[in-house]
Amino acid sequence: MTIESVEDFRLRARDWLADNMPKKPLSAERGLTQDDAEWARARELQQILHAGGFAGLCFPKEYGGQGLDREYQDAFTEESVPYEMPLLLNVPSLSICSPTILDMGSEEQKKERISRAISGEEVLCQFLSEPSGGSNLAGVLTRAERDGDSWVINGSKIWSTSAYAADYALCLTRTDWDAPKHRGLTMFLIKVHQPGVELNRMAMVNGSSEFCQEFFDDLVVPASAVVGEVNDGWTVATQQLYYEREAVGGASRYTSGVGNANGGFRPATTLPELARELGLEKEPWVRELVAASEVHHTVQEHLIPYVSAAVQEGRLPGVAMSLARLFHAETDWLEYDAGFEIAGGAGVSHGDDDLAGQWAKHYLMRQGASLGGGSSEMSRNIISERLLKMPREQADDKDIPFREVRQGR
Amino acid sequence: MEISAEQRLFRETNAEFVQEQASVPAVRELYRRGAAFDRGWWSTATELGWTSLLVPEEFGGGSASGEGVTDLVSVAGLLGAHVSPGPLNTVSTVIAGVVHAASGGDHVELLESLMAGDTIATWAAVGVSPAWSPLAPGVTATPAGDGWTLDGIASRVEFAVESDVFLVSAKTATGVIEVLVDAHAPGVSVTSTGSVDFVRTFGDVSFSAVHVPATSLVAAEAAAAEIIAHQTRIANLLQVAEAVGAIGRVFEFTVQWGFDRFSFGRPLVSYQALKHRYADDFLWLEASRAILGAATAAVQSGGEEAQKLVSAAKSYVGDRGVQIVQDCVQLHGGLGVTMDHDLNVYLRRVMLARQLYGTPREHREVIAGLIGI
Questions:
Q1: Which of A58, A172, A187, A312 is deepest in the core (most CB within 10 A)?
Q2: Pick from A290, A387, A390: which is nearest to B368 by CB?
Q3: For residue A387, which residues of chain B lie inside 8 Å, CB to CB?
Q4: Quick check: ipTM above 0.90?
Q5: pTM greater than 0.90
Q6: What is the tens place of the pLDDT at every residue in B129-160?
Q7: Which domains does chain B have, with CATH numbers?
Q8: How far is it, in rounded angstroms, from Cα B270 to Cα B286?
């Protein structure tokens, strides 16, 4: 059998897309919440891609993918621009959870979970952060205890994006309290909706409810739910974080289509649109603010591939994606501050159906990008310690049994 | 960014030459003597090919890699890292204008002389108004015979005193023209106006009934406006490259300082408050490098995005450049504001790069126009 060239593949994809995928809706405006209908729609679109043999292009064939190289996915994504794509499934289901399972999971987990994520039957999410602290991931307190052939899980997870719409979750737990903090962890692949799991959607200040919190009360899971080895969960989590940085940095081969669906926080309009709506676009101070934001966006657009290339060439280590992460927070600050400034009094005296009101509402969530995925302060620690090789901050939880680590209240 | 074997060799040779002959001690020595640069040294420098990079092969120039803009940017970055002397930016900007014009072939002799380092040229672009407005220059051209008569003042002219030829932007009744004028032509007078930099000099050039023959024309009207825009892009790109080279070097020795300097029995870089400052400075430096690379590639390929990317680079690096150096001054403590410390030599150069050929704010206005508001 001869291998189809990228260009032949592209042409075949172009024809297939034209015949099978719906065109992107004209109004690309999105609400703040992604309701059940949007998720049902994403699964439906993924099933169409799957039926046509255009889903999971870079996953191996034995797990439901197409076993193709990155160039094929890039070509497909380019061709998909005019069409409605299941963007909601890209992060974390296809680009973080599935590749982690591919690398670390059992044969059964790979066969069942990856193939169903690719076919659109199931969605995967992550149970990582905990209420006790978001940035100190290896300090998780959720406990899993062996009980015969099963494990019993108790504790709580938080900041799990879109968990309400997911079927299975990668859940990091502590299984050995006598080991130092990184060495007593175990990763499980568990069903999201089942007895023993209580899931709440969190109401954010800008009206979004994408984040969830889960409580585990004597949740019983089988031994087959362990991902990787017992007490080696940190290895799995490290892999997850790697794929997360890749996905967030726009460098994943497992995403399909252009755009970020998990952007419920992003304003639906641009600063120039706001300026025009308010008749302020010729004011020098407004032009200065709008252009300053545009400059930052432009620099960011070029910083991401620059850092990715530096990592690939070995000039910088993989954690250098923290640079893109920290820069993104600055970009958001600049944009949200500009929007709030331009909105003026109209911002705070109007509701959601008014552009100025929308920008003031987004200002409530200004800190979002400097909190999500590890705070900006954590990024600065990583940059100074891992990239500039400066001394690490003192940690009082290293090399001692985790049960002796002091916890706050 | 991928570079070829030729480019690597070119860069290594340049680095060795500049390190030996044009680094900070040489700059301080020139400053002590009250000189901008040594013309003999500049002729030697041009033998490395710096002044040929923007000149097409048909006019005797060229670059081994075929990417003249990219190679020139690498030279500017190197000179920035050493705050080197020399008229690379002004000569390159004039060359960029001349070779870009339809009349380029009429000025091959000048190009050859510029490439050999025998002639120094600079752009007399704007008048005394502090705004960057080369389409409204301070010099007026009135038709006279088959040429023009120039009157008025060009201000903030880099290396005005040291130059042999001025590329003058002058306004006409209907637009602008660009003409080449001999610095010693009757009616031309140059006044030195000083500089914040040790070796980059500036002056006012005044024109009083200066006759310019038709053969001196580079471009007129719409073509001239387009060439002025191109020169502005090249001038800014080289300044940004120089600033990025300078802040890279300043950051490097400031990190070293943080490791070596102890306070309360600990190195400075063990304090989180300072580590976070270093992290921010490093982020801004890398972002500066990223946007410089993007702007360089766009100017090299002549892409549509070139203007936006150069203005974005100037806006970003112009502002962050001085901010990073000032932060490095702060991290050095009082030593950072002494004449003895090299920081001030770098700060002076980065200040120039921010202010000339349009400030960051002026370039943001360009961007506002480009995004349609």
A1: A187
A2: A290
A3: 282
A4: yes
A5: yes
A6: 999 999 999 999 999 999 999 999 999 999 99
A7: 5-115 (1.10.540.10), 121-220 (2.40.110.10), 223-370 (1.20.140.10)
A8: 22
